[in-house]
Amino acid sequence: EAQVTQNPRYLITVTGKKLTVTCSQNMNHEYMSWYRQDPGLGLRQIYYSMNVEVTDKGDVPEGYKVSRKEKRNFPLILESPSPNQTSLYFCASSLSGRFNEKLFFGSGTQLSVL
Amino acid sequence: AQSVTQLGSHVSVSEGALVLLRCNYSSSVPPYLFWYVQYPNQGLQLLLKYTTGATLVKGINGFEAEFKKSETSFHLTKPSAHMSDAAEYFCAVTYNNNDMRFGAGTRLTVKP
């Protein structure tokens, strides 16, 4: 089954403790992206990647890192999480990142930073 | 900068009633427009999209949307609401490869 898999679904951590949220897709998509969803703000893009070893900042990249060493994986790294990074995070992918392609979304990761 | 405005963060309708979710965009160039739906505890799924061609676009689950350039709108409608339509709906717009902007979302409640 074609899917985007995120782990974990729920994560509670404390300020400053490094964490990684994993994202993997099995559709051989070139384009992958991370969003955060906050009430009243919709989805905002954190980082995106057009292909292996190619990443770029979205609208809200501060406090986040990403890497794209393999085509299927696009982990999101929070080196020193802070409470304002408490949010619902989604990974998404599409075939090549063209404007008319639909995005496939993972089921989300609810992160709470205490 | 491009932006998307969804009027009404919450919409409540009775089962069988018309669903109308509003979306307006701001841009001077032709947009590509999308509606996504998010069911509880799930990621977003594409409902429908407008890129070029016919301005009335039909999507899954009986939803449709009409691109109106003169009104800079892309409202989502469904003639008869079903309980299973209860979800959050997001309008999105893009003009190039990487910059898809989402609206703040509209939560649809369907009353029996």
Which H/E pattern describes the elements of chain A?
EEEEEEEEEEE
- Helix fraction of chain B, binned, reads under 10%
Helix/sheet category of chain B: mainly beta
Note the total helix count of chain B.
0
The total strand number of chain A stands at 11
Helix content of chain A: under 10%
| Pair of chains with the largest interface and how many residues each contributes | A-B, 23 and 25 residues
Alpha-carbon Rg of chain A, integer: 13 Å
What's the rounded overall pLDDT mean of chain A?
Answer: 94
Shape of chain B: globular
Number of helices of chain A: 0
Features:
heterodimer, A: mainly beta, 7-stranded mixed beta sheet, 11 strands, B: 112 residues, mainly beta, 0% helix
Molecular structure report:
- Chain A has 114 residues and is an all-beta fold.
- Chain A has strands at residues 4-7, 10-13, 19-25, 31-38, 42-51, 54-57, 65-66, 76-78, 87-94, 104-105, 109-113.
- In chain A, a hairpin with a 2-residue loop joins strand 5 (42-51) and strand 6 (54-57).
- The relative contact order of chain A is 0.33.
- The model of chain A has no long low-confidence stretch (mean pLDDT 94).
- Chain B is mostly beta strands.
- Chain B contains no helices and eleven strands.
- In chain B, strands 2, 4, 5, 9, 10 and 11 form a six-stranded mixed sheet that branches.
- The radius of gyration of chain B is 13 Å and the shape is globular.
- The model of chain B has no long low-confidence stretch (mean pLDDT 91).
- The A-B interface holds A 4, 35, 40-45, 48, 50, 56, 90, 92, 97-100, 102-103, 105-108 and B 4, 6, 9, 32, 34, 36, 41-46, 49, 51, 90, 94-98, 100, 102-105.
